[in-house]
Amino acid sequence: MGSSASKRPAQRSYLTKPWMEMNWGDKESNLRFITSYKPQAEDQQFRILLHGPAGAGKSSFINSVNSVLQGRVSTVAPVNNPDQDGFTKKYTGYRIQVKDEDNFYPFVINDMMSLRTNSRRTRKVNVKDVKKAMKGHIRDGYTFNPECSLSKSDEHYNDSPGASDKVHVLVCVMDASSERLRTEVVENIQDIREEATDLGIPQVAILTKIDVACPKTKNDIKKNLRRSKLIHDRVQEFSRQVGIPKNNIFPVKNYELEKNVNADVDALILHALKRIIEIGNDSLKKD
């Protein structure tokens, strides 16, 4: 037998055609959309809830959104070493101040404790807390307890939530550099999605750390992201596992080590944020 018969064909790391639509020239128009956005009801806040495994980059995404909108790298949400357990322990809503103004954007991004999958009990507690958060029952400052869900007698329980307290879009934040999700994580995300669907809350996903997952993308996001087979495959696999449509999964690179903002990184974050607002706002119109 010739040696060539046993050789496997080299696996292509890049696709011949782009797998995602991305107009890099839309950065300014996306920024204008976000800056001018207002919910239909006067004085209402549009609430975005982030959830996902520890280390996926939820807090870093909040900081990245703030950095893009401020035009400089900045930190509003505390973050931990990505190799360590999730840093967020409290339910916290972050409002983003309009650059060079005293007012804030009419949306709030809520961060919460990472998914807990070490036991069936903690998974159930996590789902219950996410459901309460989506319904507007959890007040800012609540410290999550992995063994016990928030009780109605707790001072942080909001027994009469208004429209601004409720979540309008649920965002699952996932790490693109993780090759495969554990079964318990997938089940946890699916359970949370079912609760969100029952409440009429749309769901999207943010795929972070695309630069870690794909080194060529790190070298040139604009040139290589849309043809990266690895990122394409991660999006497809995540969509298959949890059921979020591929066109509702947005790859981004968070600001983590950078000292200055970058136009291409900004463009991805603004594209994702605009779509999150649009998708959530569609559900608001149905209310």
Q: Helix share of residues?
A: 25-40%
Q: Please indicate the count of domains.
A: 1
Give the amount of beta strand, in percent.
5-15%
Structural class: alpha/beta
Give the CA-CA distance, first to last residue: 69 Å
CATH architecture: 3-Layer(aba) Sandwich
- Number of DSSP-assigned strands: 6
Radius of gyration: 19 Å
CATH topology: Rossmann fold
CATH superfamily: P-loop containing nucleotide triphosphate hydrolases
Strand arrangement in the largest pleated sheet: 2-3-1-4-5-6
Mean pLDDT: 89
Question: What sequence of helices (H) and strands (E) makes up the elements?
Answer: HEHEEHEHEHHHHEH
**Multimeric state of these chains?**
single chain
Biggest β-sheet strands, sense, barrel: 6 strands, mixed
